[in-house]
Write a structure and sequence with these properties.
By secondary structure, this protein is mainly β. The chain has helices spanning 2-15, 31-36, 56-78, and strands at residues 92-95, 100-103, 124-135, 137-138, 141-142, 146-151, 164-187, 190-212, 225-226, 234-235, 237-249, 253-263, 266-275, 291-299, 305-316, 318-324, 329-332, 336-348, 351-377, 380-408, 411-420, 426-427, 430-439. It starts with a helix and ends with a strand.
């Protein structure tokens, strides 16, 4: 009965989102389309074409096409955030000579990675963690000032079509991740775990747009922004914004972990994580794809120091985030090879510290880079920075340091800082984590 009550409480806590999680929100995966689509950025025109249309429609198509690719690159990496390990800080083994359970490690283990020990037959462990990500760069590009230029349809024909719109875009992306994890020791050598994240994602974009009239020159009525402060209301600059916040269940992870080898303090385990696409991918709460990650973990001990090594490979399925959220077209989310090296130190019976080096190789992933382009027209030329898109594999690495304190009984308080040390992918320089663990 006690276990049933505790299990129900754990799952209720893991599934509980703050009150604002129930509020209707925009579809975050289409924020860029909302900003630069027909309901967002519009270039006005008073020059009527022979078919009765104006130039504004031509520019809108270019905006949508360009930023749709940026959305895919951003969203694909935003939904591959690390989860805290569901492994327990306390590990036990049944001693038949005494008829009691004894601890198998003097330290409380790592926070973001795994050690080889299993929790022990019949034992439960519950953890609840909070991580906050505030992203500042994508592929080394400052998200506060992302440049992009947009061309007129058929700009190769020259004339007024040589006009371009340059933009500087401030992208504000943050994610709060609450994770409840429950682990049960089926035997002394095999654990099962479930990790349930609740996610709050915020994405806002502010774009400052400027018309570069290298093709139309003084004929401001062909391409302009309606501005009451400009001569004849034919302005050259305008600021647009779009965004929203979404909250809800993320992608649930189910794990099985078994001990393959044990000799004294040294151990080697293998396991498999199954990621379920339970998060709303259109609001950047989940990946929208199934994931399978087999992994291996080695750990040992020398006095109070316990080194550990993790190796894993994540296979991902298909998701609209890697395809086209607007049309529903799916594509494969990039697979990842992952490894981690670290150690934890049991300072005393109530306090331990841990450090890790964590790396992942994203395979054939969408990427963004900066390029310079010179546009020439009848009325001069202008050199502008733009973003270009490609696919390639890349390494992303971070260093983590944290501590665990035994507050009382079998209750642990966790604190961790993860620092990104590479500019590849979507990066958050410092990610804090705070959490609780309880074993019973």
């Amino acid at each position: 009965m006690t276990r049933r009550v505790l299990l129900s409480t754990c799952l209720a806590l893991a599934m509980a989102a703050p009150a604002w999680a129930q509020q209707p929100v925009p579809t975050l995966s289409q924020v860029f389309e909302d900003l630069f689509g027909p309901n967002g950025l519009v270039v006005d025109s008073e020059a009527v074409l022979p078919d009765g249309s104006t130039h504004s429609g031509h520019f809108n198509s270019a905006f949508q096409s360009n930023f749709e690719q940026f959305d895919v690159a951003l969203a694909s990496q935003l939904t591959s955030l690390p989860l805290p390990s569901p492994a327990s800080g306390f590990t036990y083994r049944f001693d038949p000579s005494t008829g009691t359970f004894v601890r198998t490690s003097q330290s409380f283990g790592p926070i973001l990675t795994d050690r080889a020990e299993t929790i022990g037959r019949g034992r439960f462990s519950f953890g609840y963690n909070f991580q906050y990500f505030s992203f500042d760069k994508l592929e080394g590009i400052n998200l506060a000032a992302v440049p992009s230029i947009f061309r007129h349809d058929d700009f190769e024909l020259g004339g007024g079509r040589a006009d371009v719109v340059s933009t500087t875009n401030a992208i504000d992306v943050s994610v709060g991740q609450w994770t409840g994890a429950l682990t049960y020791g089926v035997t002394d050598h095999f654990d099962v775990s479930v990790a349930v994240p609740v996610v709050r994602t915020s994405l806002h974009v502010l774009s400052a747009a400027t018309i570069q009239r290298v093709g139309t020159g003084p004929a401001h009525d062909i391409h302009f922004f309606r501005d009451t402060d400009a001569p004849d209301e034919l302005g050259s600059e305008r600021t647009f914004e779009a965004g929203g916040t979404a909250s809800g269940l993320g992608d649930v992870i189910v794990r099985g972990k078994g001990e393959l080898f044990r000799r004294g303090s040294q151990g080697f385990t293998g396991g498999i994580d199954l990621r379920l696409p339970t998060g709303d991918e259109r609001n950047l709460l989940g990946s929208g794809a199934w994931g399978v990650r087999p992994f291996f973990a080695y750990s040992g001990a020398s006095g109070r120091v316990s080194p550990h090594v993790n190796v894993g490979y994540l296979w991902n399925g298909a998701s609209v985030l890697a395809g086209n959220p607007g049309t529903g077209e799916k594509a494969d989310v990039p697979d990842q090879f992952q490894y981690a090296l670290g150690a934890d130190l049991g300072v005393n019976d109530r306090f331990s510290i841990t450090g890790d080096w964590i790396s992942r190789l994203s395979i054939d992933s969408p990427r963004v880079k900066l390029v310079s382009e010179t546009i020439t027209g009848k009325y001069g030329s202008v050199t502008l920075q733009d973003i270009a898109f490609e696919r390639s594999s890349f390494w992303a690495s971070s260093a983590a340091v944290g501590c665990k304190m035994n507050a009382k009984g079998r209750l642990l308080i966790d604190f961790n800082l993860r620092v990104t040390v590479t500019d590849n992918g979507l990066t958050d320089r410092v990610t804090p984590l705070i959490g609780l663990e309880y074993t019973f």
